[in-house]
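Data deposition worksheet. Section B asks for the primary sequence of the deposited chain exactly as it was used as input, without tags or linkers unless they were present during the calculation. Section C holds the resulting structure in token form. Section D is free text for depositor observations; keep each observation to a single sentence. Incomplete worksheets are returned to the depositor.
Section A, Depositor: J.P.
Section B:
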Amino acid sequence: MSGSKITEPADYTDAFLRGVLEGVKSVAVVGASADPVKASFFVMKYLRDKGYRVIPVNPKMAGQTILGLPVYGSLKDLPEPPDMVDVFRNSAAAGGVTDEAIAAGARVVWMQLGVRNDEAAARAQAAGLTVVMDRCPKMEIQRLYGEIGRIGVNSNVLVTRRMTPTKSFKKLI
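Section C:
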């Protein structure tokens, strides 16, 4: 999974992203929130529901729970290394989180949409970690595996106008 050069976010191939997503089982979410309208909350919930072991990390919530899961204050507090660290912090803060991910023994650093830190990515790759920047794992899973809903909706039906029920549909209602 590790690469030798930093690629532009648009350069990530589908095969590369699939390899990253299929190669991890545990995801530490740094910047986790208990607020159900925050992106980190519904990404954690989605990843958990997809079978990943999710580990919330937020120093302000350490010792509390999110989605029934214990919240850790930092990556160094985790009982074991996570496979992937999902960074819900700004680009400047992503540098420190990346350094913590390296020290914690993570294999992947994934920086969320809008988060990019080339210097941190270079440090992570030099340490043997795989890096993804400016992408959301939830959105990538949905895109790569044919789910509808890049904004969090997965109705499996995409409609732009009101539908008239067909005869077979009327039988169901």
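Section D:
The domain at 9-172 is CATH 3.40.50.720 (Rossmann fold).
Confidence is low (pLDDT under 50) at residues 154-163, 166-173.
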